[in-house]
Design goal:
mainly alpha, Growth Hormone, Chain: A, 2 domains, 18 helices, 81% helix
Length: 488
Amino acid sequence: MPELSQRRRLLVLAICCMSLLIVGLDVTVLNVALPSMQRELHASTAGMQWTIDAYTLVLASLLMLAGSTADRVGRKRVFMTGLVVFTLGSVLCSVAPNLEALIVFRMIQAVGGSMLNPVAMSIITNTFTDPRERARAIGVWGGVVGISMAAGPLVGGLLVQSVGWRSIFWINLPVGLAALLLTLRFVPESRAPRARRPDPVGQLLVIALFGSLTYAIIEAPDSGAGAVAPYAVLALAALLGLLRYEPRRAEPLIDLRFFRSAPFSGATVIAISAFAALGGFLFLSTLYLQNVRGLDALHAGLWMLPMAAPTCLCAPLSGRLVGSRGPRLPLLIAGCAMTASGVLFAGFEAETSNATLFVGYVLFGIGFGFVNAPITNTAVSGMPRAQAGVAAAVASTSRQLGQTLGVAVVGAVLAAGVGSSSYGDAFVAAARPGWWILTACGLSVLAVGAATSGRWARGTAERTAERLESPEVKQSLGTAATSQPRVG
């Protein structure tokens, strides 16, 4: 990629952030619209889970393929294709006649979304070649997550209340078209000097693993353990197949050698835990505020601001701490805050009082705001820049997988607890196990963050770099283990 001016690099960053904004908004806006969709489409709790998980599941399954394809055929080309497919999928979602069609159209949306965030991160990584500039750009990128979190509930509530739930998909149309035209004009094409070859067997195993596991979890409360047992067995077989097949390939879809590095493995586990907590948190909160408290979509969106605003404010602060002091402190803050929030709901029924509900939301927002920057920096810095698409896709896959599992597990627990009762009669008691699950996710962030950000973890990264054959991989892993790029 040719050297770009500072103004041009910032414009490329802004264009890439537009893709993150529409994908991020799509998650938070949809959660606010769930009760309205449930009533109009006559959907069960499992049906609502699928409107979210059909999207995140396809994203998680295809992100690594999209990243490696972009490295091979051209990042700009794949990014523009993703914008077209995502925008088309959004239009289709807005006219879905029933729940089944909506789920299918959400999957089309996700095919486009899989080509956006990891490819955009790859473009950013290759546009900002200076480590300090790259860290600052990644910090801005992480901050957009907070903006989408803060704007999503309000925008979604306003649209659902005034126009209807279908309008939440319309907002993707102008943003998607603008990003497409700006990308065509201003984003230069780039490819990896030597991209990885396709790995169709690995890709099929990933799809089988994620899909069968999610189906088994969501459908277990309604269908029973016996009916979903074959899908659980299929998931286990796919996992074992990946562990056996991938190390035998010269250029695998998932290079398992990177997981010998404790910082990289820790970033993956933390991403799954944190985003599982986010998925479960949004799912429980939205249903409670509208179906139990009886709030309309707009006021439910306003109640989500105590969670969204701290996320927006803490994300850039976390980026600066990662740059100046490393990932340890932000991860410890995130783990403590998310755990405290979960305990407040699980142990003290925080949702039953306005004061404790507010505090619980603020604590979760602080925790989630601090967790994203160390995930992004550790995961991306620890991979070779030539395969930046694959590097970003591993982190993004962990996020999407976490959110998928969070909605699936927490929703399944809720459905089993509520049974045939109305939400008002049984929701708080049925949701308590779900809140304990979110507490466990917070503890995982805290424990894994502490264990994988110290001297021992740096040593594993150095030893991993020595075992790897590629000099570029050795250098990048060693750099990630011994220092963090300074932000600001």
